[in-house]
Amino acid sequence: MTIARALTIAGSDSGGGAGIQADLKTFTVLGVYGMSALTAITSQNTLGVHGIYNLPLEAIEKQIDAVVTDIGVDAAKTGMLSQVPIIELVAAKIRQHTIPNLVVDPVMVAKGGARLLEDSAQQALITKLIPLAKVVTPNLPEAEVLTGREIRSVEDMKDAAKRILDYGAQTVVVKGGHLAGDAIDIVYDGQMFEELRSARIETRHTHGTGCTFSAAITAELAKGKNVMDAVKVAKEFITCAISDSLELGGGHGPTNHWAYGRRNQA
Ligand SMILES: Nc1ncnc2c1ncn2[C@@H]1O[C@H](COP(=O)(O)OP(=O)(O)O)[C@@H](O)[C@H]1O
Ligand SMILES: Cc1ncc(COP(=O)(O)O)c(N)n1
């Protein structure tokens, strides 16, 4: 049996709700074979990030080389890449192996407030990685950092999407989870804007929403979907996962990766 193959290059969340763990669960539920190249280990739970241990560059490089040269990759995503040398290495590897269908989730700060990207690395994300992206998926605070402008409205989100596209990404999805009211995501491909809207779900259990959303886009691209269709599936996937989110731990619980699959089987 053949199967679409997706690679996540990201950090480990020991709590299992975000990072590599969220990505691999999402790939599996969407019927895609998942592989990982860990960039960092975090000791993390629903209450926050308690430690960050970046991996040696050699370890990151060898993981990517190992899976690409043997198993092959139909689509890949990046998550937590906390330092300039890691961003530069990952960008060089993506170019060297011409890894297709790259989704860049510009992870900066965890829900609990811990910084997952050093300030000095913001520019490297813009100049080295975003130009390689088929899709880049900033949330509002990330889009503000990437553009240097405040975002208060859907119009501001559209303006940010245009500016981020100018950095070289093919499509920008500015996620509106941090704005009040409906959860509106803006998709911009340089030609037209699409608004993906869902009702806001009142829950604090949203740990890992961004990781899960970008992993779902990656899985659908790996299967050969076009970007707009992939983003629409991802929006449905994350809406299901949040509406059925899990009351685990004492803080921000994880979303429910199985909810979408269960709904589609019913
Ligand atoms: N409370 C919510 N109800 C419904 N959808 C949400 C909610 N919070 C986030 N989303 C959706 O989840 C996805 C991730 O968004 P966001 O939370 O902004 O990203 P991040 O986890 O990177 O901060 C987006 O599609 C967004 O619209
Ligand atoms: C290893 C790792 N990567 C990414 C996130 C961001 O996830 P979120 O902002 O959705 O909590 C995280 N908390 N941990």
UniProtKB/TrEMBL annotation:
Gene Ontology terms: biological process: thiamine biosynthetic process
Record EC number: 2.7.1.49, 2.7.4.7
GO MF assignments: ATP binding; hydroxymethylpyrimidine kinase activity; phosphomethylpyrimidine kinase activity
Span of domain Pyridoxamine kinase/Phosphomethylpyrimidine kinase: 13-256
Pathway entry: Cofactor biosynthesis; thiamine diphosphate biosynthesis; 4-amino-2-methyl-5-diphosphomethylpyrimidine from 5-amino-1-(5-phospho-D-ribosyl)imidazole: step 2/3; Cofactor biosynthesis; thiamine diphosphate biosynthesis; 4-amino-2-methyl-5-diphosphomethylpyrimidine from 5-amino-1-(5-phospho-D-ribosyl)imidazole: step 3/3
InterPro entries linked to this entry: HMP/HMP-P_kinase_dom, PM/HMP-P_kinase-1, Ribokinase-like
Catalysed reactions listed for this entry: 4-amino-5-hydroxymethyl-2-methylpyrimidine + ATP = 4-amino-2-methyl-5-(phosphooxymethyl)pyrimidine + ADP + H(+); 4-amino-2-methyl-5-(phosphooxymethyl)pyrimidine + ATP = 4-amino-2-methyl-5-(diphosphooxymethyl)pyrimidine + ADP
Cellular component aspect of the GO annotation: cytosol
Gene3D superfamilies: 3.40.1190.20
One Pfam assignment: Phos_pyr_kin
Record keywords, A-Z: ATP-binding, Kinase, Nucleotide-binding, Thiamine biosynthesis, Transferase
Similarity annotation: Belongs to the ThiD family.
PANTHER family: HYDROXYMETHYLPYRIMIDINE_PHOSPHOMETHYLPYRIMIDINE KINASE THI20-RELATED (PTHR20858:SF17), PHOSPHOMETHYLPYRIMIDINE KINASE (PTHR20858)
NCBIfam families recorded: HMP-P_kinase
UniProt name for this protein: Hydroxymethylpyrimidine/phosphomethylpyrimidine kinase
